[in-house]
Amino acid sequence: MTTHRASTALAALSAAVAVAALAGTVTPSAHAEGPSAQAALSAPSGPSAPSALDWRPCAVAGGPAAQECAELSVPLDYRDPDGARVRIAVTRVRSDRPGERRGTLLLIPGGPGSSGVALVTEKGERLRRETGGRYDIVSLDPRGVGGSTKASCGLAPEDRDLVHLRSWPAADGSITENVARSRRTAEACARNGGAVLRSLTTANEVRDIDRFRRALGEEKLSAWGSSYGTYVGAVYAQKYPRHTDRWVLDSSGDPDPSRVNRGWMQNMARAVEDRFPDFARWASDPARDAEGLRLAREARDVRPLVLDLAARLDREPRPTTTPGAPLTGSRLLQAVQMALYSDNAFPRLAGLIAEAGDPAGKPVLPPGLDRPLSDEAATVTIGVICNDVRWPASVPDYRRAVATSRAEHPLTAGLPANITPCAFWKDAPADRPTRITDEGPSNILMIQGLRDPSTPYFGALKMREALGDRARLVTVDHGGHGIYLGNGNACGDRTVTRFLTTGERPARDTYCAG
Q: In what order do the strands lie in the sheet with 103-108?
């Protein structure tokens, strides 16, 4: 695969892993890092109003030459609009065809914890070509991300290792260590996170987006939200319906307000099982012989091979090329989950499995598993997930749920049902989760893959049901996460582009073959 496609796949999986369970890899910003929480808190500056944007060039290699960046000042706490403020990093690529310009298209990144500035760097030029210059393309780094004000929980490196921050049970199914780490993490966040950490919520990202709209001088925005960004987009469309124009939700989760992030996490168990057969067929194809990547003669043999290897690695972890990061069963299954986000990651996963099964091999860990997350990246993901909704606190209930999940969905080994720091979170949610309804303009186009390992199709149908006649759904017969301009389905890409450029939307829900 080409370097560009590889980076695209990694960026997509980074965002979505974070949504479904604590602390997926955060797509790094290609631009300057933002100030720390304490350094970035501004003193009150008079009555609250949209701040002027002082745009400056910020193009980087591989991104749009015309990309510009600015900072937007917003209230730390919207209940105290004239109090302390935080800075939000924003970006734009202006239309290169002013005579064709329709308005402004907002890219809403996934995560929680992905950078909108980096997303415009990656996708902005292609999106400008796809839409024929009809839009200024804009985005922002949510609070805690990239160039925006950050928070810090002050977590130790071992607690930021992805297979520790995400609550993989012990090899025997025990969650004792997960409980201790989750409690320790929640206590560190309560001790060190401060007001900025408490402000990391979906509700505040939506409010920040509307402040950005006002600062741009736009009455309406069009939008393309992906992964967790679909939930942010849906909440914005619910809260500010008259400010929405053409709204695209790409790879949606179940918006159930009683569970929100917890529901997305739990849905991953079935989602991974639904997606894995695509990898099994690929890894058993005779074409893999020439590449040295054929894992089994029949597709049905790949899954037991992987599960048996994971069990062996839990008993006897293998050294890797990364000191201090042995390949355990949990680390292998985490690599499986990450690779299922894009077919382009299948060769790397098959190579890892082959190396792990070779006594003479030394496995090479994929990006995201070869080093701990930064403290800021871990903090923003934990913060949003735990601040948005109250999680159950009963440890015995988690033990029972993990045992059931391990039996029903062994590829995720109980992770999606396990305890997280949210069970010990000190602060109650500041806002009630928004219920998504069918009240509002009919201007939403959903696009969804049938075998998405993070935001599964059955969850997206719940979003579709909630939106009613406001939306139309394009179902794409494809595996992986993220469809538009991401997985090579011409029918899906064409349908979304037509909607954004002409407003033409399918009269009813429709289907695109793989």
A: 56-57, 68-75, 85-93, 135-140, 103-108, 221-226, 244-250, 444-451, 471-479, 510-512
pLDDT below 70 — which residues of the chain?
1-51
What is the enclosing helix (H) or strand (E) of 39? helix 37-40
Residue 43, number of CB atoms within 10 A of its CB: 7
- Helix (H) and strand (E) counts in the chain: 17, 10
Sequence-separated (6 or more) residues with CB below 8 Å from residue 463: 230, 234, 249, 252, 253, 254, 255, 436, 446, 471
- What would the two tokens of residue 396 be? 């015995």
Q: What is the 3-state secondary structure (H, E, C) of 439-477?
A: CCCCCEEEEEEEECCCCCHHHHHHHHHHHHHHEEEEEEE
Q: Give the list of residues 6+ apart from residue 294 with CB closer than 8 angstroms, or none.
A: 283, 284, 285, 286, 288
Instruction: Sort strands 135-140 and 471-479 into parallel, antiparallel or unpaired.
Output: unpaired
pLDDT at 44: 56
Of 237, 162, 110, 190, residue with least CA distance to 387: 190
* C-alpha distance across the termini of the chain, in Å: 20
Contacts of 447 (CB under 8 A, 6+ apart): 248, 249, 250, 251, 473, 474, 476, 483, 484, 492, 495, 496
Q: What is the DSSP letter of 318?
A: B
Distance, C-alpha 248 to centroid of its chain? 16
Is residue 356 within 8 Å of residue 332, measured between CB atoms? yes
Residue 487 has a pLDDT of 81
Alpha-carbon 211 to chain mean position: 23
Count CB-CB contacts under 10 A for residue 182.
26
Cα separations (Å) of 107 from 45, 151, 289?
A: 29, 23, 41
Length of the chain: 514
- Quote the Cα angle for 225-231-237, to 5°: 80
| Whole-angstrom distance, CA of residue 402 vs CA of residue 419 | 9
In 3D space, the residue among 468, 464, 467 whose CA is nearest the CA of residue 447 turns out to be: 464
65 closest CA partner among 145, 121, 130: 121
The pLDDT, as a whole number, for residue 488 is 82
The confidence score (pLDDT) of residue 49 equals 55
Q: How far apart are CA 352 and CA 440, in angstroms?
A: 48
pLDDT per residue as tens digits for the range 392-426: 999 999 999 999 999 999 999 999 999 999 999 99
pTM for the model stands at 0.92
CB atoms closer than 10 angstroms to residue 370: 13
Element (DSSP H or E) covering residue 112: none
Q: Do the Cβ atoms of 105 and 127 come closer than 8 Å?
A: yes
Task: Identify the sign of the CA torsion 145, 150, 153, 158.
Answer: positive
For residue 432, give the DSSP letter: P
